[in-house]
TrEMBL record:
Gene3D superfamilies: Dihydrofolate Reductase, subunit A (3.40.430.10). PANTHER family: 2,5-DIAMINO-6-RIBOSYLAMINO-4(3H)-PYRIMIDINONE 5'-PHOSPHATE REDUCTASE (PTHR38011:SF11), DIHYDROFOLATE REDUCTASE FAMILY PROTEIN (AFU_ORTHOLOGUE AFUA_8G06820) (PTHR38011). GO terms for molecular function: 5-amino-6-(5-phosphoribosylamino)uracil reductase activity. This is Bifunctional deaminase-reductase domain protein. It comes from the Bacteria. It holds the Pfam family RibD_C.
Amino acid sequence: MGTLIYSMITSVDGYVSDSEGNFGWGAPDEESHVFMNELMRSTGTYLVGRRMYETMVFWETAHLLPDAPPYIVDCARIWQAADKIVYSTTLEQVSSERTRIERSFDPELVRKLKAETELNLTVDGPVLAAQAIRAGLVDEYQLLLGPAIVGGGHRFFPDDIRVDLELLDQRHFANGVVYLRYGVKNPA
C-alpha cells in the first residue's frame, strides 16, 4: 500500500508562499535539492492542483536547460517518470507526459490509488492538501522549513483540522533549511 505524503517548502511561520504568491525565499540550494530528489524518488504519483501543476510543469523540460546542473536534471527525470493527476475545473489540457485531469477531488479514488500501489503518492499545494487532510488521507507530513518569516500568504495547514503527529526524521542544512518528517499518530 502506498503512503500519501504532503510535502512542501514552508516559511518558519507556516506559509508556502507570501501574500503576493512569491516563494523564492524558500528556493533550495544544491545540498537541500539533492536531498529532496532522494525523497521524490519513491513517488509514483503526484496529486496536484492547477496552480501547483503550472509551477511544477517546469520539470517536464528542465533537463534541456543548457547549464542545468546534474541535480536539476535528476529532479526533472524523477518528475517525468511519475504519474501526475491534476485537479482542476478550468484546465483544458496538460503539457506533460503521464498526466491526466480530474475535475473534482474524490477521496475514494485516492484511497483506491493508495491501495493499488507500493510507491508513494504526494499531494502538492495547500488547497488540495487541505481536502486530503480533511478526508483523513494524508499519512505523512514533510516540511522543509526555509529560514524566513513572511507574515502572510498561503498557509501550509488549513485552519480547521487537528492531527496528532509523531516525529519520524529531521535534518538540518547549511543554508538554514530544516527538514521535519512526521507520521500521523493513530490514523483513522
